[in-house]
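Quick log. Single chain, no ligands specified.
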Amino acid sequence: MLSVLACLLAALVWLKGSLPHIGGPYVARVSVGGLITDNAKLTNAIDALADDGEVKAVVLKIDSPGGSVAGGEALHDAIARVAAKKPVVAVMGGMAASAGYMIAVAAQRIYAHESTLTGSIGVLLEAPEFSGLLAKLGVDAQVIRSGPLKDEPSLVRPLSPAGRDVAQGLVNDLYDQFVTMVASGRKMPVDKVRQLGDGRPYTGRQALALGLVDAIGGERDARAWLAAEKNVPMNVRTEDVSVEGYASRALSGQAAALLVDIWKTVFSQSVSLDGAWAVWHRSGL
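-> predicted structure:
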């Protein structure tokens, strides 16, 4: 009988993250990892924190190379809405670049490790083009289009000069939006953001010297700041905000995490040809 009770207790502890909120004041921990895409469940969960009277502050933990501009914008705006009502502090892990940095700047304070890769402020638009391969195979693709720019970028022919101009205009406008978010969040002149935002990543130590982050540290340092500056004591418990289903929570270990990432990337987060991305792009990989 005792062994059965022990097993039940262990199961309850293991499933604690799946249980409903138990009530009382808490600090919400929102974790954003992997490729950022338009995640309505996560966006809605963050939005709900703004009006939850029991949420005293939010710790935003980021470990991401970036992702889609639309996904980053949606999360940025949701975080900003929460930050307008209560303290929000961002804590960067190994990487918080591009759209990962975009969402961080909505927080009131940003912590990074010295070795964190962050920044990489910029936008890219990529489309594979196979006309050379098709020509070698003797394949001729015929395209019927309503206008000269309807099929650009295309898989079967190179960009035309006009198509390249249009694509560059899209990227430039999205980049301007990104720069505006950084300038507003970091209270930094737009010209300085443009100077820093040439697409390169920075270490956490470099980012601190440039004003892109506020301090070197982790979650404990973030909680200490909340206690000292925002009157949120260290003994207020932390509760994870989860939008994953039971199957995702049941997986554990590095292999399971890899499977989840592959599933999300290949199926749930597939890249469309006309998608614009704010992601750290390692050339040649």
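Strands lie at 26-36, 55-68, 88-97, 109-112, 117-119, 201-203, 215-216, 238-240, 277-279.
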